[in-house]
Amino acid sequence: xxxxxxxxxxxxxxxxxxxxxxxxxxxxxxxxxxxxxxxxxxxxxxxxxxxxxxxxxxxxxxxxxxxxxxxxxxxxxxxxxxxxxxxxxxxxxxxxxxxxxxxxxxxxxxxxxxxxxxxxxxxxxxxxxxxxxxxxxxxxxxxxxxxxxxxxxxxxxxxxxxxxxxxxxxxxxxxxxxxxxxxxxxxxxxxxxxxxxxxxxxxxxxxxxxxxxxxxxxxxxxxxxxxxxxxxxxxxxxxxxxxxxxxxxxxxxxxxxxxxxxxxxxxxxxxxxxxxxxxxxxxxxxxxxxxxxxxxxxxxxxxxxxxxxxxxxxxxxxxxxxxxxxxxxxxxxxxxxxxxxxxxxxxxxxxxxxxxxxxxxxxxxxxxxxxxxxxxxxxxxxxxxxxxxxxxxxxxxxxxxxxxxxxxxxxxxxxxxxxxxxxxxxxxxxxxxxxxxxxxxxxxxxxxxxxxxxxxxxxxxxxxxxxxxxxxxxxxxxxxxxxxxxxxxxxxxxxxxxxxxxxxxxxxxxxxxxxxxxxxxxxxxxxxxxxxxxxxxxxxxxxxxxxxxxxxxxxxxxxxxxxxxxxxxxxxxxxxxxxxxxxxxxxxxxxxxxxxxxxxxxxxxxxxxxxxxxxxxxxxxxxxxxxxxxxxxxxxxxxxxxxxxxxxxxxxxxxxxxxxxxxxxxxxxxxxxxxxxxxxxxxxxxxxxxxxxxxxxx
Length: 698
Hints:
Blueprint: H1 2-25, E1 27-33, E2 41-43, H2 45-48, H3 56-59, E3 62-65, E4 72-74, E5 81-83, H4 89-93, E6 99-107, E7 112-121, E8 129-130, E9 134-140, E10 148-152, E11 154-155, E12 164-169, E13 175-181, E14 187-193, E15 204-213, E16 220-230, E17 238-239, E18 243-249, E19 257-260, E20 263-264, E21 275-281, H5 283-286, E22 289-291, E23 297-300, E24 311-319, E25 325-335, E26 343-348, E27 353-354, E28 362-369, E29 379-383, E30 389-393, E31 398-403, E32 414-423, E33 430-440, E34 448-449, E35 453-459, E36 467-470, E37 473-474, E38 484-491, H6 494-501, E39 502-504, E40 510-513, E41 524-533, E42 540-550, H7 592-631, E43 656-657, E44 660-662, E45 671-673, E46 677-678
Parallel strand pairs: 1-7, 9-16, 18-25, 27-33, 35-42
Antiparallel strand pairs: 2-5, 3-6, 4-5, 6-7, 8-11, 10-14, 12-15, 13-14, 15-16, 17-20, 19-23, 21-24, 22-23, 24-25, 26-28, 28-31, 29-32, 30-31, 32-33, 34-37, 36-40, 38-41, 39-40, 41-42, 43-46, 44-45
C-alpha cells in the first residue's frame, strides 16, 4: 500500500508538472522600461513561442491587443515584438503597480493562442510638485511652541523609489519640519513651532519647503512658505472631523452636493467668522470639486469617472477673522457604476472559409473588454442565430469562434454573424458587432447530366458534321470547379470506334456526326460522354447516348436467283422458253413497310373470322325461331298406336297423352312435357322431378 500510495503521488506530481509546463509555455512575459522609442525591441516573440524561421510563413503569427491603442507590433518577418507607440506608465496605470499590458499571440496550422504580458517598469521621469507653490500661514504671537501647521504634500506620479521620498525645510531656529506617513504610504509635511513668536521683532517669516524623490538622478520640487505673525486670537477654528471620508457614485450629475465640512470657533465677532478653502489639492481634483467659502459645501463641478480616478484626496482649511486656521483632510472614494459598454475586437483567422473545413477549426479570435469593475466588468459573449459556428472561451477576456458543423457552400455561401457582449451589471449593458464570413468553394460536387441516357435519331446518308444531339450537365460548384467540359469516354465500338462515328464539342456538349451513316451497315450504336469539371482533382460523370439510324429508300430491287452468270445462252431467234426462276423484289430496306403489311393482314384475318362466326350464330337463331313459329298453332300429340297380336287377336287399345306447357311471360320459349301415362293403368314408378324438355331451350 505504501508503494501504491507513493506511485499515485508521483503520478499526480507528474500530471501537475505537465499542466504547469503547458501553462508556462502558453504565457510569455516581457519587462521593459517606459518611454522607449518607437521600434525598440521588446523580445524575440517567435523564438520564445518555439517557432523556427522556416515555419513562420505557415504558422502566420499575429498579435491581438485588447487596448484601443496598439502599443506593440511585429516585425515584417513576424519574429520580434517591438514598441509601436509611446508608453507612459503614469498615464496608462497611474499609481497601480505592477503596470502590465496584455496581448494574445495567435498562430495557425495548427491553431493556438499564447498569452503575452509586458510589464512596464517605471523610470524617474517626473519631479515632485506641490499643488501650491506659495503657502501663507497666519500665526498669532501667543501660539505655544509645539503647535503644528500642515503644509500639505507634494505629488510625484512615479512609483517606488522614484516617487516622493522626503521633505526638506530651510533652516530656521523658530521652526522645524515633521514628516508623517499616512496608511496609504503618502508622506505629508507639517511645520512645528519651536519657540514663542514676537510680532514686535519680526512680523513675517519666509521658508522654502523642498520635496525630493529617490530616483537617479534625484528630482525635486519646491514651495515658498510665508508666515504672518498676528495679534492674539484666543481660540482657533476646530473642524468637526479630522478626516472626512466620502463615497460618491460616479454617475452623480454636475452641481450635486457631494459633502459639507464644518468648523467651529469659540471666539466672538469677526474672530468667530470662518472662511473655508482648499489647502493641499491636486489640479485635477480642483477641476471636479468646488468649496463654498461661507457654508463649507463641496459640490461636483465635473464628470466623475471611476475608470479614470478611483479616489481623490485634498485638505481643507478653515480660517477665522483673526487669522487662525484649522485643517482637515478629505478622502473621496468613487463608487463604480455600470456606465461603460463592453468593447469587442475581432481578428478573423479564416475568411473566406473553405467549405471542407473540419469542425473545431478556429476562424476568428474575439477579445472583449469592460472598463467597469466587479460584476459590472464581467463580460460574456454569445452568438445570435442558429449557425454552424460556436463560441469557446480561450481565456478570461478572449473567445474563439470555431466551426461547429460541416459547411456547404452550395446551400449557404456566406454567413452574417452577430456577436453580442453583455456585462453582468444592473442594468446590463451590451454591444454587438457583425462579422461577415464567406464560404469558399471546393470541388466537392461532380457534374450531373440532365438525363442518365440520351436517345438520338438521325436519317441515313446524313452529311458529315451534322448535329446528332446535345447533352447538358450541371455542376453545383463555382468558378473553375463548376466549369464543365465534355469528352467521349467510349461506346459500343470502344473509344476509338466512337470517335470515328461522332465527336463532341468540349464546351457545349453537342455531338456531331463524323461521317455519313448507312442504315444497311449500322442501324444503331451507343457512345459514352464524360462530363468533367475544372477542379483539382477533377470530378466527372458519364452518360450514354444511343443513336438510331433511320432508313431511307436508297436501294433498288435485285434478282436473287438464278444468278446472271448461270442463265445460259439462248439460240438466236429461238422463242423464249418459260424460265424456271422468279424475280423477287428484294430490297435491303427490310423494314417498316413489311411489318406494317403483316400487321394489317393479321388484323384483317381476325376481323373476317369474327364476321363469319357472327353470321353463323345469327343463322342458327333464325332457324330456331322458324321452327317454333311453325308448330305453335297446332301441336300434335303422339298418334295412337295400334298393335295386332301375332295370333291375330287385336291387342288392347292403349292411348298415350302428353301434357305440353308453353310459358308466355318468359324471356325464353320453353316447351315441356311430363311423363307418359296409360289410360286405366297405374304408373309403375314415380314421376321424375323435372319434366324432360321436348324441344330444348333457347
